[in-house]
Amino acid sequence: MFADRANIYIRSGKGGDGHVSFRRELFVAAGGPNGGDGGKGGDIIFVVDEGLNTLSEFRYNRKYCAEDGGAGGKNNCTGKDGADLILKVPEGTVIKEAASGKVIADMSHENRREVILRGGRGGKGNQHYATATMQVPKYAQPGQDAKELNVLLELKVIADVGLVGFPNVGKSTFLSRVTNAKPKIANYHFTTLNPNLGVVDLPDADGFVIADIPGLIEGASQGVGLGHEFLRHIERTRVIIHLVDAASTEGRDPVEDIRTINAELASYSASLLDKPQIIAANKMDVLYGEEADTVREKLCQVFEPEGIRVFAISAVSGQGVKELLYYVAELLKTVETKPQVFEREYFEDPSIDITLPYTVEYNAQDGVYVVEGPRVEKMLGYTNIDSEKGFEFFQKFLKDNGILDELVELGIRDGDTVRMYGLEFDYYK
Description:
Elements: E1 5-11, E2 44-48, H1 57-60, E3 63-65, E4 85-89, E5 93-97, E6 103-107, E7 113-117, E8 148-155, E9 161-164, H2 171-178, E10 196-202, E11 205-212, H3 227-230, E12 239-245, H4 254-268, E13 277-282, H5 289-303, E14 309-312, H6 321-334, E15 359-363, E16 368-372, H7 374-382, H8 388-400, H9 403-409, E17 417-420, E18 423-426
Parallel strand pairs: 1-3, 2-4, 9-11, 9-12, 12-13, 13-14, 16-17
Antiparallel strand pairs: 1-8, 2-7, 5-6, 5-8, 10-11, 15-16, 17-18
């Protein structure tokens, strides 16, 4: 079954707890602390699988959890890291935060792998807390909590050309003639319940991918019929072909059909009308002589002044189809090829308690500036500093909390090193 939407729950792994233990050996009256660190929790990672074209797997299993990190052990033994959980999705999948609908990641084009939730860091064992005045520390750090999120997966197919039109105008017949796709064809409304894709191969011209977008009727953008479920698939297309029933076999006016569908596209997203459009006046084999000429001339008079080319075709006999396809191939060469990628909109709000302490010190032995404390540790746990947006949030946190000012007061200079919980950064003003 084709599925292009799914709601799922994801949770990363909890960090393993640090261990409290002490060295106990014969002839060693009072050994020091030797509690090991906890292991890191597993990440939730989404990857693109070229062999998938549907989200149906996520319809049956809606809960996905990575493995927790193992607890530390005695004799300085570190706990086992939790296994990452890798979720495979088809190219074109957009991952959104379920409550707000904001984009977390767009799994398309160059983005083939994305860490959505990072596992918690393992807690430190009591060996790290021994000091000259506290030689028997009975405290170990607990592992960092797991992160959880409800996400919405939306598949937006990737095609060069989107084929739109009212039900029963011949889109499936057209697609089966010009591509290798084998859609279901019958004479009743809503035959096509899935967005069908096919590849058009042309001698002496570049081929392209065409998608049949089903179920567009008046009111589709408001959820009427099936159109609302499939409008999202037009967003990535570069050219739109309107297929209309030029013979009006069901009593509809082809001009009115095009106006209606364009209104639905604009209602869903105004940017869709910026895409180049072509009109394929189908079922011309049903018309004869002057009647056929009259219909074609009417469409040309209405739409060609708007820059929309009209082709008279028959998906059944093949009339005019070749000319249409070669025109589309040439048009695609003039259309910007920059892929549409949905930028990240959702950033987790850590809600960090500003009363939590932190310290900023200079470690003369290592020649580094050390920033630590619960407030800093919590911020790092919520922030993916490997991403550009995450690193911007990280820098803003340092500024807003006065940490940068304290580093300046300590005499930090460009190129000096700042250490935060095992992470090191070069400072530049």
